[in-house]
Each structure stands twice: as C-alpha cells, then as structure tokens.
Design goal:
binds pyridoxal-5'-phosphate, 340 residues, single chain, alpha/beta, 4-stranded antiparallel beta sheet
Length: 340
C-alpha cells in the first residue's frame, strides 16, 4: 500500500527503533527520565524558548497551552478551520471553559487587521480576550506556510492588546524547510509553541509544548490534570529526539514529492489540482469525475490510500514512507481508477 492519508501514518525506521530500544529511562512524572529531559531541552533550544514539556499528542499540547494561558470565561481567537478549534473535539470549551472567536482566514492565514477588527473594548459585559492562536503550516488551509511578516503583524496587534500568542506548530518543521526561516525565528513571535514529532518527522508518539519558565511550570500542572503525565516515557521520547536530529533535513523531499503528485494529478481528466496552492507536503484537490468517496475506494483497490476531505475533495499527504517512485506508481493508479 502507498499510504498518502496523512504524514502521521509513518512507522519508525530501524535506526529510530534502535535509539528507542537503547533509551535510558526514568519516571517522567517525578521528573527524572533523562531521555525526556534531553528531548525537552533540545526542542526548547531549537525553538529559542526557556523550557519545554513532552506530551502524548499535539492535541494535548494545544489544549494544555490554551488552558495555561486562560481562565474559564475567557475568550480566545482562532482561525475558523484551525486544528485546535476544528479538530480537537471541542477541547477549548470542555477543558478550559473558554469561548472561541473565529477569524475566517485565507487558506488558514489572517492579518493584523483581522484581529484588530474583533478586539473588544474593556467592559464588564464582554468575555476577557486572552490569546491568539496561529497554525503554521495550516493543515486545512492545505499545508500553507504563514509569511513571517504576517506573523509579526498579528503578534504586534496582539501585544498592543496585551494578548498572548500560541503557535500550533505541528508542522512548523515543514514551514521552516519550505521557507528557510528557522523554527526559532518563527517561535520568537509567540509566547508558546506546540511542535509534533509524529507528523512529518516520522516519530511514533509525541509533541513538546515550549515557552517561558513560569508558563511551562503551569503547563506541567495541566498536563498532569489532563492525564498526560507519562512514566518511562523516554522510550518514545527517544524516537522523537532521533526524528528531531535526523529527519528535519529530509522534509524538502516530501515537498518535492507533493509537487510531483499535484502536477501529475493536474494532468488527469476528472481532477482539478492547483500546483501553486501546494507549498509543503499536503495536497488537496477536487474530483469532478466521480464522488470523492468512490474514487477513494477505487484507489484502495489499486493499493493507494488517500482521504476524502469533502463530497468532491481529496487530501493526499506525502511522508517519510513514500518515495518518488511511489508517487509515480500512485499517479498510474489514479489514472486507472479514474478510467474505470
Ligand atoms: C495542525 C495540527 N495540529 C495539531 C494536531 C494534533 O496532533 P495529534 O494528532 O498528535 O493530537 C494535528 C494533527 O494532525 C494537526 O494537523
């Protein structure tokens, strides 16, 4: 099977498994797992932040960040299709008791003016707005890379209004690989940053939330409250650390494969695909020939896995387990599936 459903489907490489098998471990809830400590330190260093805290998922790092930045009754600002709002099971309201004010971005990106337009005057009738969340790259936007000037502009408006900034950087590594801007430069505009190791980097489990010293102390308390305190977590942290050190450089390959895929798709009758809209490893395209769900099933029979993203939309994501040759094979499978 050529699995293009997501970049989360990757399995650990033999070298990564070896690093995991040999990991030194301790009890991370008691704070003495050396591999978790090494991962948290190294991630914080790469992001230019004081400290980091390891958690099982990107959902948890985002939701713990939201909880740590707010109190129940507060309001947060998010992009309407951002993961923390759209795909995290109503976490902000259920876990933090906050309301969500949404901005409809353009492929996930919004402006300083968009934020300014919804700022509330100080008045006892209103919730207290506390946080602006940005997602880079933006998943439902199609792997969009936020221009750094746009981030600086939004951060400037947030700072003037005394709002904190959180970055969902599940795929910050892809943004950096595509733009050449370092993760630390992106992170410098944010009070907290969540990064994932289990997406493009190919580790089996985990995310780090990074930020200032006091913020991470508070975040550790909510990690425990949300059930994210793990014991001999060094086993999985070793996979994440291996991925952080060895798999960032190869992300450009996934981006080139995504370009090859979208360009090949654009040539097929019954598909509308825009190569200019593909900036990283996520390819969204429209199927005009058949309902998307039907094409997904035909492709499965041909040995290619993709996800329907709407009645006529499909998502394919290149990843560590998919080579250029696989992309060519997948394109042949698309042609056959559309021809049937
Ligand atoms: C942008 C973004 N943020 C957060 C997450 C959540 O990560 P996890 O699946 O580890 O909870 C995802 C998952 O795909 C994502 O795409």
């Amino acid at each position: 099977m050529i699995d293009l459903r997501s970049d989360t489907v990757t399995r650990p490489t033999p070298q990564m498994r070896q690093a995991m098998a040999q990991a030194e471990v301790g009890d991370d809830v008691l704070g003495d797992d050396p591999t978790v400590i090494a991962l948290e330190r190294r991630t914080a260093e790469v992001l230019g932040k004081a400290r980091g805290v390891y958690m099982p998922s990107g959902t948890m790092t985002n939701q713990v960040a939201i909880r740590a930045h707010t109190e129940p009754g507060d309001e947060i600002i998010l992009e309407a299709e951002g993961h923390s709002y759209f795909f995290e099971s109503g976490g902000p309201s259920a876990l933090s008791g906050v309301s969500c004010r949404l901005i409809a971005g353009r492929r996930g990106v919004f402006t300083g003016d968009d934020v300014r337009a919804i700022l509330r005057p100080k008045n006892e009738h209103f919730p207290r707005t506390k946080l602006v969340c940005v997602e880079n790259t933006h998943n439902r936007g199609g792997g969009t890379v936020w221009p750094i000037e746009r981030i600086a502009e939004v951060a400037g408006v947030a700072r003037e209004a005394a709002l904190k900034m959180h970055l969902d950087g599940a795929r910050l590594w892809n943004a950096s690989a595509a733009s050449g801007i370092s993760p630390a430069e992106y992170a410098s505009h944010f009070d907290s940053v969540s990064v994932c190791f289990s997406k493009g980097l190919g580790a089996p489990v985990g995310s780090v939330l990074a930020g200032g010293d006091e913020f991470i102390t508070r975040a550790r308390r909510f990690r425990k409250m949300f059930g994210g305190g793990m014991r001999q977590a060094g086993i999985i942290a070793a996979g994440a650390l291996y991925a952080l050190e060895h798999h960032r450089d190869r992300l450009a390959e996934d981006h080139q494969n995504a370009q090859a895929l979208v360009r090949g798709l654009a040539r097929l009758e019954g598909i509308e695909a825009d190569a200019d809209a593909v900036e990283t490893n996520i390819v969204f395209f429209r199927v005009t020939a058949t309902p998307a769900a039907e094409l997904v099933e035909k492709l499965r029979a041909e040995g290619v896995l993709v996800l329907a993203a709407g009645p006529h939309a499909i998502r394919a994501v290149t990843n560590l387990m998919v080579s250029r040759e696989d992309i060519n094979t997948a394109l042949e499978a698309f042609a056959r599936a559309l021809g049937r």
